[in-house]
Amino acid sequence: MSAVTCCRQQMRSLKSIFSFSQCRSFTTTPSRLVTPRKVRRPTLLPGAAGVTETSSLPILQNSPEAALLRRRDPFRTGVIARKKGMTAIFDAKGARTACTILQLDRCQVMTNKTHQEHGYWAVQVGAGERHHKNVSKPMLGHFAKCETSPKQVVKEFRIRDERGLMKPGTLINANWFRKGQLVDLRANSKGKGFAGGMKRHGFSGQPASHGNSLMHRAMGSAGQSQGGGSRVLPGKRMAGRMGGERVTIPLVRVLDVNNQLNTVVVRGCVPGPVDGVVTIQDARLSHPPGISTSYRKSMVNKPSRKPSKEGKAKAETAAA
């Protein structure tokens, strides 16, 4: 058999295999049963078509109401104090504990922030004293509306709900806190100015010998070569301004409370210089302390207590 006839027979066999008569026709119907995909119905807001205004809907996770629930703000307001210095306290066993003295200076409640009007619950507190000539006219009007003297420092303290609102003009003393409870401290740290990498970030520096000249405290290379993009990556720790930032120290224990000197002694050190402003508030990550009697008297919405049977009998005998 010649090579030409062999090739012709192979071509005929291939045509018979790939003939159009043997190919399956294309159809739009699937060969097997396909279950339709379940699509979740979108949650409609009140006022939409078919949804009544009084329908109960879950709170959205990105809504302001859900954000307030996630904050876990304290129930009570905080106070403004001044850092007076550090000392030490010795217990019965002779153990020494370093502590910081914080003093309250005419701390008063200015006004309240409500969720209906401002979008959150808060209490505005002022402390200190300022001459009226050094206060702007809008602030003088604000102090006159709050029925308080011009304050040197005014700050807001977030609270959980309306149960923590207080009457404007209420004076808060050191007995607002109790011995042994946990508080959160916030203050601005000391400003160190422009600092190098060793002081600011704790770099070890370069070798002090072996040919190193005038590069002992330098941080060294900051970027990469061509393979790394030939640039300095964002967030690189370098020399810059150090300090002067807001620092929060959580879960600090109160060691002593002196209502005569109006001082609160806390354990450990507190950021900021002497006579710096420090805010004290109940710790978020601990159980709230027992509400004192003075707190109940200064509440806006006082809790309603039902009189007991003995109280009703005494009232009836007194009326008779």
- Helix and strand succession? HHEEEHEHEEEEHEEEEHH
**Main beta-sheet strand count, sense and barrel state:** 6 strands, antiparallel, barrel
Low-confidence stretches: 44-52
- Which secondary-structure class do the elements indicate? alpha+beta
Strand order of the largest sheet: 1-2-11-10-7-12
Which architecture name of the domain at 65-191 and 241-297 does CATH use?
A: Beta Barrel
DSSP summary: helix tally: 7
Indicate the percent of residues in helices.
10-25%
Tell me the total number of β-strands. 12
Shape: extended
Q: CATH superfamily of the domain at 65-191 and 241-297, called what?
A: Translation factors
User: Kindly, what is the distance between the CA atoms of the first and last residues, rounded to a whole number of angstroms?
Assistant: 138 Å
Q: How would you characterize this protein structure?
A:
The protein is of the alpha+beta class and 320 residues long. The chain has a domain at 65-191 and 241-297: Elongation Factor Tu (Ef-tu), domain 3, CATH 2.40.30.10. 18% of the residues lie in helices and 26% in strands. It has helices spanning 3-17, 64-71, 115-118, 137-146, 197-201, 293-297, 309-319, and strands spanning 79-90, 96-104, 107-113, 122-127, 153-158, 171-172, 182-188, 191-195, 240-243, 246-258, 263-267, 277-282. A six-stranded antiparallel β-barrel has the order 1-2-11-10-7-12. Strands 5-4-3-6 form a four-stranded antiparallel sheet. A hairpin with a 5-residue loop joins strand 1 and strand 2 (96-104). It is extended. The termini are far apart. The model is unreliable at 44-52 (pLDDT under 50).
